[in-house]
Amino acid sequence: MELLVDIALLGLLLVTAVAIAWARDLLAAVMLAGIYGLLSASFFMVMGAVDVAFTEAAVGAGISPLLMLATLSLTGRFQAGTDTRRVLFSLSLVILVGALLVAATLDMPAFGSPEAPAQQHVAPRYITESMNEIGIPNIVTSVLASYRAYDTLGEVVVIFTAGLGVLALLMSLPPQGEPVRGELLSPMRGHRILRVIGKILIPPILVFALYVQFHGEYGPGGGFQAGVIFAVGFILYAMLFGLDVVARVVSNAVVQVIAAVGVLLYGTVGLLGMLTGNNYLDYRDLAGDPVTGQHIGIIAIELGVGITVASVMMLVFFVFSGQLAGRRAG
């Protein structure tokens, strides 16, 4: 039965991917991309990668389609005509890269094979020693926040850098009109039912984000997932009540500073480990007991991750919305 589910999900993923590549209506492509993210999250759930499924559902099926819709508001809905030679070249390149990736998978061990190097060396080490060394039941969090904390720091820096890139790119565009307020910044401002439902849903969304943030040691979740969920709450508020209303709570400039604070918090925790005589991002001596020190360090860096992810997601949405408002005003 599980094999049939896997085949069905893979088949739907393939059909959706082909439909995205074939669609000339970019709005339809964005909607299909959201479906692709939802199918990917379902596939990860079947494979037992709950944390990855959580992230894919929040990002791939949630905020990414929203940002792509904001992009379409700036670029237009339909794809312009393209050169046939360029299309053929791109298709050939994609087929070549795809063939190389398929060929590379032939050298990989079968999924879940006990003979795989990861199952013989890495996995037993994490499974048998994680509880004694880290002291938390969620091994995924132990790996991401402690054993490979360097890698996670790199991911956070990449997210922060991507946010700065989007900010620099869009802010460098010439203004299309005077800044506007009111209806242009909130197309759903006049829908009373949506606003009432939003007031009911937004507080639980933010509370759930905090739960995911601080419960990642014991179940699926952590800073990446919590940051996206927290940003969704603010973005939904902006869509319902307007950017001008959100700016009274947290302005664009404040969001930029907070995004940097998250990365700084992560890096500072690593420096504290060095001050105690350990390696960078080794937080065993942040408390009298090594396990307690690990807990403190993991909570701190996960908080930094959540702050940066939430701030960057909000920042990108605010910048896109600001550009859209300026173009409408022009």
UniProtKB/TrEMBL annotation:
GO cellular component terms attached to this protein's record: plasma membrane
Organism: Microbulbifer rhizosphaerae
Domain MrpA C-terminal/MbhE, first and last residues per copy: 99-180
Membrane topology: Multi-pass membrane protein
Sequence ranges assigned to domain MrpA C-terminal/MbhD in this UniProt record: 12-76
Annotated compartments: Cell membrane
Keyword Membrane: yes
Keywords, sorted A to Z: Cell membrane, Membrane, Transmembrane, Transmembrane helix
Domain Na+/H+ antiporter MnhB subunit-related protein: 193-314
Residue ranges crossing the lipid bilayer per the database entry: 6-23, 30-50, 56-75, 87-106, 156-173, 193-212, 224-246, 253-275, 295-320
Family: Belongs to the CPA3 antiporters (TC 2.A.63) subunit B family.
NCBIfam families, per database record: PRK12504.1, PRK12507.1, PRK12508.1
Broad class of where this protein is predominantly found: membrane
Protein name: Multicomponent Na+:H+ antiporter subunit B
